[in-house]
Amino acid sequence: MYVCLCNGFTCRDVRRVIGEGASSVGGVFRACEARPNCGRCKEVIKDYLAEAKAPATAVSAALQPALMAAE
Ligand code: FES
Q1: pTM here?
Q2: Are 12 and 18 in contact (CB under 8 A)?
């Protein structure tokens, strides 16, 4: 699923660049060779960053539906 419609990158792209070391919203944009435009994707990218930082067992139950909907 597309995360950023302005730049056309997907949840798969976001997870990949986070796995490669992107640790902020700006870092995700840089790694995707994109520039923020409307900013609507910022909160979703933050959710992916939080997911990556949280231990697998600590991912909040409240976060799971949002991430599932984004995929
Ligand atoms: S949706 Fe990502 S900058 Fe607009």
Answers
A1: 0.78
A2: no
